[in-house]
Amino acid sequence: MNGFIILQKPNYGDTASDFWNIITQEANFHDALIFILGCDSFKLRSGAVYRTYIGTDRPIGVELIKSKGTTFWKNLDDGKTAYQAMESIQPSLWEMLTHKYWARFEIDGDKNWRL
For 102, which of 41, 52, 55, 59 is 20 to 30 Å away at the CA? Predict the structure, then answer.
C-alpha cells in the first residue's frame, strides 16, 4: 500500500490502535504515506504503522485546502518530497486569520518519501 487518506472520525471509545486496525483491515502500511485531515489525526498517528505521516494537530477548515488538494498529489507525481508537497497546501497567514484556523500540517517520518 503506497498511500492512504482518512476523512472519518474514530468511534467514541476507540483507541488509536483500534481505529487504525478497523480502517486498515490488517493491510501492510510500513512503507506508506499516510495523509490525514482533522484534529484526530495526531491521536491516530500513535496507533499507525507507516513510513511518512502527514496530519494536523488541530481542526482545520477543509475549505482552506480543498482547492489545493490536487497540488499535494501533483507535487508527489512530479517527484517532490512529501515535505515539499505538504508545504504546498499550507493555509496562508491571511487564510488562517480570516478563517480562524491556526492548525498547520505537520510531517512525521521520512521527509524524502516519494510516490
Answer: 52
